[in-house]
Amino acid sequence: MTQTIGLPREIKDGERRVALDPSAVKMLVHSGLVALVEKGAGLGSGFKDQDYALVGARIVDTAAEVWSADLVCKVKEPQPSEWAYLRPGLQLFAYLHLAAGPALAEALANSGVEAYAFETLTWPKGLPLLAPMSEIAGRAAAIVGAFHLAEGSGTLLGGAAGAPPARVVVIGMGVVGTMAARGARGMDAEVTGVDVDLERLLEVHERGIVTSTLYSNHHNVGEAVVNADLVVGAALVTGARAPVVVTKDQVESMRPGSVIVDLAIDQGGCVETSRPTSLSNPTYVEAGVIHYCVTNVPGQYPRTSSRALSAAVIPRLIDLAKDPNSERIAGSLNVSHGKVVHPAVIASLRGDYQTAID
Ligand SMILES: NC(=O)c1ccc[n+]([C@@H]2O[C@H](COP(=O)([O-])OP(=O)(O)OC[C@H]3O[C@@H](n4cnc5c(N)ncnc54)[C@H](O)[C@@H]3O)[C@@H](O)[C@H]2O)c1
């Protein structure tokens, strides 16, 4: 049975979150587990080593020591410099997004690690470990979109007397899309919600979260984005590579200086011209359109994000440590005994990385 839980310091570019705050580590210790916390792991979120020590954690100096635990719980997928720590029998619990990361899938499978992904856990319903970060990323989308529109076409979301508001198109009205739409509506933009789920569209329309809705197909999306100032990408099919909803020619039809914030980029992106960017270098321009495709947006709000993530993760982490077959972690196992085992991830990786799934 699992006895030690490792909490590493995150090393992805610009990442300041930590997977567990001191209150969650206290719960771990109370449940009889040993918590190894890497020195400085919580600093980016305002949690000192002493805060963790006071609740019973053992502070360790190096990444190697923390990765020697039975189970490592972290925020972002292991970075290439961390792959050397992966080993047979180690349990890993983190955001993995393997459908968009064939090289990482291969590294995990070859290492023999048992890898559980936050983003595909489905118990008791929905995606409870993705939702808190989606909420934050969605709120951030409206802020970064508004910011980059200023440097692009110079359009203010809410307009002014005699000047129309900006047109915002949100692709995928799940958690991210809803929060992005609320943010943009809060700044008085015109917001069109696009989804394949008509019930969801009815709900967001009735609640006044969007000004109009559109069924997601190639034709409708083309008509919407040609006039858009800001497009937010937030379409997801759980575990799978994101559907490409906005094609390259549709991006080319947009006005110069308009903005795309593609948050679905962690699953490969739902805009054909999207490619991953980082918090330190978040945008690039293609076809005259500013693209913001940061894969770890909540990392720039580490205090809020770490507390929200920690609250969602801690009960499931204890479940996983006590019983890896628990129904409470259903859907999260992505890599086991040298193979990718999650059906949607397998389907997305087919062709990219055959040996991990055969
Ligand atoms: N970049 C970041 O930092 C960051 C942070 C959090 C979440 N995300 C990502 O944002 C994406 C959305 O997450 P979520 O929690 O909102 O998911 P969700 O499951 O709540 O919502 C996804 C929505 O997409 C819709 N959808 C599916 N196929 C579609 C299509 N072809 N056209 C239009 N809509 C379609 C679904 O019906 C659903 O309403 C995910 O890829 C998630 O990993 C990114």
Notes on the protein architecture:
- The chain is α/β, with parallel strands linked by helices and 358 residues long.
- It has two domains: 4-127 and 302-349, 3-Layer(aba) Sandwich (Rossmann fold); 134-295, Rossmann fold (3-Layer(aba) Sandwich).
- The chain is 31% helix and 17% strand.
- The chain contains eleven helices and 15 strands.
- Nicotinamide-adenine-dinucleotide (NAD) is lined by residues 119, 127, 130-131, 133-134, 137, 171-177, 194-197, 200, 216, 234-237, 242-243, 245, 263-267, 294-298.
Q: Structural class given helices, strands, pairing? A: alpha/beta
User: What is the architecture of the largest domain at the second tier of CATH?
Assistant: 3-Layer(aba) Sandwich
- CATH H-tier superfamily of the largest domain: NAD(P)-binding Rossmann-like Domain
Count of distinct strands: 15
Q: Low-confidence runs (pLDDT<50, min 5 residues)?
A: none
Helix residue percentage: 25-40%
Largest sheet: 8 strands, mixed
End-to-end CA span: 29 Å
What is the CATH level 1 assignment of the largest domain?
Alpha Beta
Assembly context of the chains: single chain
Count of all domains:
2
Strand arrangement, largest sheet?
3-2-1-4-5-6-14-15
Radius of gyration: 21 Å
Mean pLDDT: 96
Q: Helix tally? A: 11
Molecules bound to protein: nicotinamide-adenine-dinucleotide
Question: What coarse outline follows from CA principal-axis ratios?
Answer: globular
CATH topology (fold) name of the largest domain: Rossmann fold
Order of helices and strands: EHEHEHEEHEHEHEHEHEHEEEHEEH
Q: Could you tell me the strand content as a percent range? A: 15-25%
